[in-house]
Amino acid sequence: MYIDDCVEGIYRIMRSDHSSPLNLGTDELVTVDELVDIIAKIAGKSVIKRHDTSKPQGVRGRNSDNSRLREVLGWEPKTSLRQGLIPTYRWIEEQVASAPGFSGIAAE
Q1: 1-54 pLDDT per residue, tens
Q2: Disulfide-capable partner of 63 in 14, 19, 29, 76 (CB 3.0 to 4.6 Å)?
Q3: Which of 104, 5, 90 has the alpha carbon at shortest distance from 39?
Q4: CB of 75 closer than 8 Å to CB of 69
Q5: Phi-psi category of 105—alpha, beta or left, where left has phi over 0 and alpha has psi -120 to 50?
Q6: Which fold, 3-51+58-97?
Q7: What pTM was estimated for this model as a whole?
Q8: pLDDT tens-digit series, residues 54-104
Q9: CA angle 94, 5, 62 (to 5 degrees)
Q10: Which residues on neighbouring strands pair with residue 62, listed in sequence order?
């Protein structure tokens, strides 16, 4: 989830009188493959994915069940995964580019 939504959610939970655990995350289901595709598109890169199907595959995707969060707080995160990854990727890209000794990324 995008950091602005995370901070807002934590703030709202802390200000509420709810004392039981609540899921705070995005209910947008995404697989690792989909996440790679989203980031590659944001970066303007072409990625070749290779999968070793002889190994354990783990979970198929991740998301959060926010039904209780909506019920208790009357609120849910607003920023989609893709919308949040755009400024996040750009910020990371700037940090890497300005790092001492950085001379660019090797050929794709």
Answers
A1: 999 999 999 999 999 999 999 999 988 888 889 999 999 999 999 999 998 889
A2: 29
A3: 90
A4: yes
A5: beta
A6: UDP-galactose 4-epimerase; domain 1 (3.90.25)
A7: 0.76
A8: 988 777 777 888 999 999 999 999 999 999 999 999 999 999 999 888 776
A9: 90
A10: 30
